[in-house]
Amino acid sequence: MTPSANQRIDEESYTSWRQRSELAKMADLPPSLEQELVRLDREFWISSTKLKQIVQRFREELEEGLVKDGQSIPMNISWVHNLPSGREKGTILTLDLGGTNLRVCKVTLLGDHEGGKGKSTLEQEQYRLPQSLKTGSADNLWTFIAEKVAAFVQAKGLDRQYSLEKPMPLGFTFSYPATQHRIDHAILQTWTKGFDIHGVEGEDVAKHLREKLKERKLPVQLICVINDTVGAMIASAYNDPATIIGAIFGTGCNAAYLAHVSSIGKLDPDDERITAASTHNGTNKGKEMMAINCEYGAFDNAHRVLPRTPYDKRIDEESPRPGEQTFEKLSAGLYLGEIFRLVLVDLMDRGLVFQTQKEEGKEGLKNLYRPYTIDTSFLSQIEDDQSPSFSATRDLFAQTLALDPSDIDLEVARRIAEMIAVRGARLCACGIAAICGKEGIQSGNVAADGSVANKHPKFKRRWARALGEVFDWEGADGVKGPIRITSAEDGSGVGCAIIAAMELERREKVANKLP
Ligand code: GLC
Fold first, then answer.
1. CA distances from 393 to 6, 206, 357, 382 (A)
2. Which among 248, 300, 331 is the best mutation to test ligand 1's pocket, defined by most ligand atoms within 8 Å of the CB?
3. What stretch of H or E contains 91?
4. What's the whole-model pTM score?
5. Is the CB of 190 under 6 A from ligand 1?
6. In a mutational test of the pocket of ligand 1, which residue from 97, 134, 179, 192 has the highest number of ligand atoms less than 8 Å from its CB?
7. Is 43 helix (H, G, I), strand (E, B) or coil?
8. Which end of the chain has the lower number of beta carbons within 10 A, N or C?
9. Is residue 491 lining ligand 1, measured as CB closer than 6 Å?
């Protein structure tokens, strides 16, 4: 790096956290805490110069993943060859294995119905995943899913409309890294997002699901396995042709985009699966496309560029898969609340916060010592608190942790919540900037879904601003920039159904030898 770049980083890091903070001040802090916040800000703040360095390395890792298997970012082939036309039709059952729930939907795609493209209707049921399931056995997982499908099929009377001879098409949104040789096949590479179910890694999840559904004689046929990012891109493109990327900023952090097959070094352009698809969708040789599920939560697993704090390192070490998902562990919803908790515990242990609580022997301190007791919504609510004297934040501490913080404790907690969320949003912009930079995409909509994107009050603005800084857009605020963040349509329900409908149409054409 040039000396001037180094100097700029230093200058930026010396800008005081108070100047950068958007939160109104609620209490004066003693010098020891002021200093502590300066230290934390130095660790968490990502300057414009650093953002650009991260994006540069990010682009390299995306390239590496396209060329060869087994790289840090896997750049998984999805076998989705094009965006939808908006005319796709059909009734599809979809399954979405999320971090917290299993969602089963009956999606009806109306296509060009009454002149409006991309319309659909949906009926759904949500089932909470028992905590024990996430670290249990494969058999428990597939049995649980098959049970819920059976309950849904029966409740909606689908067993009367479909049969084993004429089954209902089923799409499965499986939002974990998977190697796909076909669209209805998916070998789990590794669990992410805290899942640790034995006997699934290295296995074809489609095969296991199919077997369990068959055992129960359910009148369904698995057509596709998709990632939530690919679903978000497809569902959004069904309505909005300006969609360039599908992204999830939620429990995990990831994105998908439509790549030129010619840019995917690990794929043979003469592969029969690609030529067959282009015959059917009318794409000329050399112009074929393929949706790539980046799985970029794994960015920088070699720890070359991301500035990790001691809190991040601890989260990684104590996670079920240390050394994996480095980028995700700094930026995604599953971890933001836990980083916040670890900082508070550190300050408390060093006698800097919650001292009255300690003296009073508050029960709540035990809660603070329990891993993953604070989720990202806690941080969102702190930053959303407009109430006089921040009573909503006080209530939050009381209800979630049984703690009664002093004004100073609260002031410190608010600042920390802000630093962590700002870092997360700025990092989230890097992945998107890397895809756009690499692909030469200069405008369009990033269809985003996930709890952080949807529920954190300042995420989208911070994300846009960071993107503007990376691309040196005029004016510091990227909100009006040419690449914008939009709210994705339901990718894991409707998006999954559209992909199943596209695949069924393709199969029908191939079977009937239609162009
Ligand atoms: C994790 C998963 C990825 C998913 C993302 C968002 O990164 O590995 O497949 O897209 O979370 O849910």
1. 38, 45, 16, 6
2. 248
3. strand 89-97
4. 0.94
5. no
6. 192
7. helix
8. C
9. no
